[in-house]
Each structure stands twice: as structure tokens, then as C-alpha cells.
């Protein structure tokens, strides 16, 4: 998180620096260019003032940067409006002193500038006085600086808020997945326990498939997204475990259009399938049915799960379905459609997701 915020600040530092370059150099160049074209009717005259603009623009960008990062930005971010107004008044006065006295004196003494510019600044230094117009500094310096600072404050806080929300989103998703894992293993271990009580010859096979599923959860499910094919392989193992426990002909699992490119958030579909087996089949009598159809078409995936309703149901908190509903809202707020059709004897769920 701190690294992300650091990157945000570095990004805005570059924006701020570009703004000061524009304020110190580009506006003056544009002004000279327009004057040369409209008044002197000779665009080439624009270059006469180029050296002057470079020299005094350098003083301006140094002053703007020192004032902005040293005082103005902190005052605006801390909402100290009175400090902002007073600080700007002092800055405008000091800037006038800098331009009239310090800049002229330094340029007149530096041999890197032309003799013409040094003579001009020396004469300007002799005729400098304390009086100046307030309107131009307000329009060209004060309002742009203050407005830009408030803009940066708003943009930076919005981006930091989005970063914090993203962090909260990931924390909540990790929490939901952490709840799902023990819930899944609890149900699967109950299946193995049931087979072991019957001393079923299929117990070893179920344990082997459970090992494959555990491997997937430990090494694949912690990623943000996984291959849809791997997710389907995991679901297939789960269905096979249930087929061992129940009659083959009461469980239908149909997969259509799965490709190697599509990805999906891990363990997103499992609770719907798990819920169908938990509440749709009667272990003692073998009655009921579960039908699962998974189809991928272009950028959408559709899961249809239908099951009968067992006559004897154990009380359930429905942790799995509650979690997956929350995950869908977080991960696909505008990219999923969940339809539930519950009737007296059947329960049908249709989920459509937009794949990325």
C-alpha cells in the first residue's frame, strides 16, 4: 500500500513540474509569439526575447517550486485557507523583489548571457522601484497556483481513496476465500467419513481425488485468476467424488465450449454445485437428481445447476452461497446475472458471467 501511494506521489510530482515549466516558460513564449505576429507583423521577432525569457523563467520556476512544495501544498492539503491567502500575499511581494532586484542583478553579472541582455538588466536594476500592479500577479500567478494546488489535492486524494478501496476489496475477498476453504473441506471430509463407516471400497479413490482438490486449493486458488480449464478439472473431481457416493444416473455434468484462454476467479462456481449435492440428494434412499451444465460462449460463461429438494434437510447456515454472492458483487458488480428459481420440489440456479 505504501509503495502504491509513493507511486501516486511521484506521478503527481511530474505533473506539478510540467505545470511550473508551462507557467514559467511556455506562457511567456506564447505571449511573445502572439505579440510578434499581431503587433510587429513579423513572427521572427519572437526570438529577440528568447534569452530573456529563459533567464527570468529559470528564476520564476525556482521561486514557484520553493513556494509550492515548501508552503502552499501543505497549507492547501491541511485546509488552512487563511494561511494560503497570507502566504500568497507574501510570495507575490517577494517575487516582485526577486524579479526587480535579484534576477536583474544576477543576470547583469553573469558572462554566459549576451552583453545586450546584461546591459538591459543593469539599466532595469537602476530604475527598479517598489511599486507594481497587483492585477497581473493575481491573474497570472496567484489564481493559477492556488487553483492548480486544489486540483492536485482533489485528484491525489481521489486516487488514494481508490487505492484504499482496492486494498479493502482484496482483503474482503481473501477473507471470503479463507472462509470457503474450511467449509469445503468440512463437507468433503463428511463424505469420506460416510464412506468409511460403510467400509466402502471407493474410500481410497475419494481420498486420492480429495488430495488433487487440496493441491489445487493450496497452489492455484490463492491467485487472482486461474485458467477456466483448471477450475473445470477441479469441479470435475468434486462431481466424481459425489458420483461415487450416489448413483451414476442421478448426476448429470455437461461441459460445453471450454477453451484454454478463458480465465476465472478460483472457486467461484463451487458453492452452487456443492449446494446442489448437499440439499438435492438423499444419501439414505438415493433419490433425487443433480444436473449441471457449464457452457462458454465468446466472452460469457453460463452455469446452470438444477437439483431436486431432499425431503430431509439438515439445518444449514449457507456460508458457501452467502460468500459467493458477496464475491460476485465485489468482482463482477456489473458483469454477472444470477437467477434463482425455487419451487416445491426443485431448485434451479443460472449464473452468467462476463469473462475477461
Automatic annotation (TrEMBL):
Question: What InterPro entries does its record include?
Answer: Bact_2-comp_sensor_kinase (IPR050640), HATPase_C_sf (IPR036890), Sig_transdc_His_kin_internal (IPR010559)
Q: What class of enzyme is it?
A: transferase
* PANTHER family reported for this sequence: SENSOR HISTIDINE KINASE YPDA
State whether keyword Repeat applies: no
Is the keyword Transmembrane helix assigned to this protein?
A: yes
Q: Which Pfam families match?
A: His_kinase
Organism equals Mucilaginibacter calamicampi
Q: What is its EC number?
A: 2.7.13.3
What protein name does the entry list?
A: Sensor histidine kinase
- Membrane spanning segments where? 12-30, 50-69, 81-98, 134-152
